[in-house]
Every structure is written in structure tokens, then in C-alpha cells.
Design goal:
With 338 residues, this protein is an alpha/beta fold. The protein has eleven helices and twelve strands. The protein starts with 13 loop residues before the first strand and ends in a 10-residue tail after the last helix.
Length: 338
């Protein structure tokens, strides 16, 4: 909760978010799809209901970014939180460093880390979200125009000024984390991580040894691990859905991924959980992972994965999943947590 003394909404387990003083539920609501610009048709009212339902289920943090729908996702988060007392409000995490061209929104965003640009982004996010302070402010991706030391010191200055509670990084490598840590502590890292995207295991291990929290994104690999995808559905994704251009959703990689999903079905059935919940539980079993960002377009989709926050996989189940990864060849990287 945004207020440290507020009572929890539900019985979801929590973990300390590194050294920030915040305790977060093991799953958080990811508001990328609420932006609507890269996921095909998304209904704003459905997005608001999904966020509110996630909070009713006990989730106490929301992750968004200005680039999601060019500010629209942050505005949807504000709508979802409207009328909520500050003591009941969830933690709100957002990002900076990706700047779009208002005249050409379809163009690739620029990675900008200049201090004045980041100040403008922060003020815009505070306004769109309707909050006085960002709980966790993350540099979305390494900047192209500014040295890491410069933009990281800018975020630390925001923290000292009280505009943000904690400064963090997203999509940064071990070498970049090391550079930032020499200037000031990195509160958390947000890397992609799922059973079929495991390359960021080294970054997670670095964070574990430096008391840096890790909130992974896309634990269900954008829906691939929910069991809702077939080869036919992947082929017919609309052009305005980013997954239609993603290599995980095409060719031999898709065949391996779908074979892996089939291998997960008996494990999920024995536990009495959905495939999505199993996928979330797998990333949460990884040492060093504090929480997982999980997206939803509807309240029903939240119900499909919320159990992942409370499922603890046994050593035998982790071995079965590792064997399935080795057998199908899905993804790359370590197949089992240490």
C-alpha cells in the first residue's frame, strides 16, 4: 500500500522490495495492455475493472510507463484509483527514458536520458497519474544520448528531492548495474523473465547478491504460457498486436514453445491451477525474484493467474519443468532455479 501503516487488502504473500521500505505482493498488475496502442483493441472500461479487481484480490502495486499508449496507460491507472483514499492506494511504479514523437507516434521512440527531458517526463507522469510522488521510478532502457552515470544521478536527485520514493532500472545488464551501483544503490531491476525467456538469470543473480529487488515482466510470455495460444491463433494475430512480429510467436520457436506448454498441462492439472498461474509460480520460485508483473485486459484474466502468487512449486515439479524445457528445446538459459 502507498501508506506504510495501511492494512493489507488480502492474504497474498509479500516480499520486501529491496531496501526501499516497501513490502509488495508477489504479483503486481502490469498496465502495458491498458495503453491500448500495441495490443490490438483494448476497452478502457475493461482495463479499469481489471485493475480494480486485481486490487480487490489483494495486489498492492501497479506497474505502468508513459510509452504505454503514449500516456494513456498512466491515465487509465489514474481512473482506476479515482476516489481511493491515499491510505488505501496501491504503490504506483512507472518509468522514464522513452520519448515518442507526437507528430509521428508510429515511429520508434527515442531513448533519451538528458536531465531536462527526464524532469519533463516525471512531471508529466505525476500529472497523468494524479499522485504527489512516484513510488518506484525506473529508467525504461539504457539511453542513447546520455551516459548512464548522468541519467542515474538525475534519478537519485529526484529521490533526494522527494519526487520519487525509490530509483530503479529496467532492461539493464550486469555491467550497467555495476556502473550505476558505484554512484548510488539500485533499488530494483525490471528484466523480462519467463520459463521460455531465461537469459536474464545473470542479472537476477547480481541483484540477489546486492540486495537489489527484482520485479520480472512477462512471466507468461505475453500469453504464450497460458494455454490460450495455438499455431493458428498466432498466425492470425492482427497487425496492430506487437506479438504478430515477435519471434516467440512464429516458426520453429513457436512450435517448441507450444510443445512445452503441452508438457506443462499435466503438472498444472495435478496442482489444480491454470497454466498461467503455473508460469507465474515458476518465476517466483527463482532465488532473487521479488515479484512478477502480470498483465490483464479483463478481470477474468486476473482470475486466471492470481493463484500463481500463492503456489509454491516442489523440487520434483521444478525438475519436471526443467526436463520439459530440455526435451522440447523451448527458450534458452538455465532450466532450473539454483
Amino acid at each position: 500500500m502507498a501508506n506504510d501503516s495501511a492494512a493489507p487488502r488480502g492474504a497474498l504473500p509479500t516480499r520486501a522490495l529491496g531496501q526501499t521500505g516497501m513490502d509488495i505482493t508477489r504479483v503486481g498488475f502490469g498496465a502495458w495492455a491498458a495503453g491500448g496502442s500495441e495490443w490490438g483493441a483494448v476497452d478502457d472500461a475493461d482495463s479499469v475493472r481489471a485493475i480494480r479487481h486485481a486490487l480487490e484480490c489483494g495486489i498492492n502495486w501497479i506497474d505502468t510507463a508513459p510509452i504505454y499508449g503514449f500516456g494513456h496507460s498512466e491515465e487509465i491507472v489514474r481512473r482506476a484509483l479515482r476516489g481511493m483514499a491515499a491510505t488505501d492506494r496501491p504503490y504506483v511504479f512507472t518509468k522514464c527514458g522513452l520519448v515518442w514523437d507526437e507528430q509521428r507516434p508510429a515511429a520508434a521512440p527515442r531513448r533519451v536520458g538528458a536531465a531536462e527531458s527526464l524532469r519533463c517526463e516525471l512531471d508529466a507522469s505525476l500529472r497523468r497519474l494524479g499522485v504527489e510522488r512516484i513510488d518506484l521510478y525506473q529508467v525504461h532502457r539504457p539511453a542513447d544520448d546520455t551516459d548512464l552515470e548522468v541519467y542515474w544521478e538525475t534519478l537519485l536527485a529526484f529521490q533526494r528531492a522527494g519526487k520519487i520514493r525509490a530509483a530503479a532500472l529496467s532492461n539493464h545488464s550486469v555491467a550497467q548495474l555495476e556502473r550505476a551501483e558505484r554512484i548510488g544503490h539500485v533499488a530494483s531491476l525490471q528484466p523480462p523473465f519467463s520459463a521460455i525467456r531465461r537469459e536474464e538469470a545473470a542479472e537476477i543473480e547480481w541483484c540477489r547478491t546486492h540486495d537489489t529487488a527484482v520485479i520480472v515482466y512477462s512471466p507468461m510470455q505475453a500469453g504464450l504460457l497460458t494455454g490460450a495460444f495455438t499455431a493458428e491463433r498466432a498466425r492470425t494475430l492482427p497487425a496492430n498486436d506487437w506479438r504478430s512480429r515477435d519471434p516467440y510467436f512464429a516458426g520453429a520457436a513457436l512450435e517448441r514453445n507450444l510443445a512445452f506448454v503441452e508438457a506443462l498441462k499435466p503438472i498444472a492439472a495435478r496442482r489444480g491451477v491454470s497454466l498461467g498461474a503455473l508460469a507465474v509460480a515458476w518465476v517466483l520460485a527463482w532465488p532473487g525474484v521479488t515479484g512478477a508483473i502480470v498483465g490483464a485486459r479483463t478481470a477474468q484474466q486476473v482470475d486466471g493467474w492470481i493463484d500463481g502468487a500463492t503456489v509454491t512449486l516442489s523440487g520434483e515439479e521444478l525438475e519436471q519443468i526443467a526436463a520439459a524445457l530440455e526435451r522440447t528445446g523451448a527458450g534458452s538459459g538455465p532450466v532450473r532455479p539454483r
